[in-house]
Amino acid sequence: MKKILILGGSGFIGNCLYRELYPYFNLFGTYCSASRFSKQKNFFYYNVEDDNILTVVKKIKPQLIISCLRGPFEAQVACHKHLVDYIQNFDCRLMFISSTNVFDAFEHYPSYEFDKTLSESPYGRFKIKIENSLLSLAPSKYVIARLPMVFGTNAPRTKEIEAQVASGTPIEVFPNTIVNVTSDRKLSQQVHYIINQKLTGIFHLGSSDLITHFDFIKRIVSRRKLKGAVFKQIFTTNQMRYLVALPKENKLPPHLHVSYESILEDLYLP
Description:
This protein has helices at about 10-20, 55-60, 75-85, 120-135, 155-165, 185-195, 215-225, 260-265, and strands at about 5, 25-30, 45, 65, 95-100, 140-145, 150, 170-175, 175-180, 180-185, 200-205, 210, 230-235, 240-245.
């Protein structure tokens, strides 16, 4: 059975992937601050600032590493440099969970898998650094999965909206920013398929349809039956702005396509 190591397996996305993949693979994960994982034999403590990731990797000897790490940007960049050096010399692949923010400098149109990356944000530039390090590997050795905003019943973004409504804190929304989105459930299915089919390369894993950020947040508030929400509208430009990554070359089968309406259905409270 294939060994898979999920870096950041205790986090929101990492743990969603862990629960999806656990019945089918010999699965391991890392944790840092979430001490409840210390009692799970398949989880290893790893602090991205203080520890050498190769200590964990050499102990497990996985055939696939999925990186969902969080932490200081420079520490993550250094960690992935060690991983790339390791993967060049061993029978192992790396799947990096990246972001549509690698395109956040482009405002007037959606971006596709092989478009040039360019970011104005520290977060986007850090993701680009790690993506570029993976591109030095043989194409068969890596997957870059670029994600839009990820929602779900227990997603940090969903919980934050609920907490803001409960406290009367205005929710920041962007009426002229067009986005696509995904859910934890659909993302986990897509990643599972990519692993099963041994696919490699760059994948854009967001919804195929688009919506403004403000409209989507309003619909979440409605679906979650949250009363008394206050919105703070923020305009970063006078024109409509795209923060969208769509697939063109590496498309998944139709049953794995996602729409923002299907994501909203997952958030519906009867």
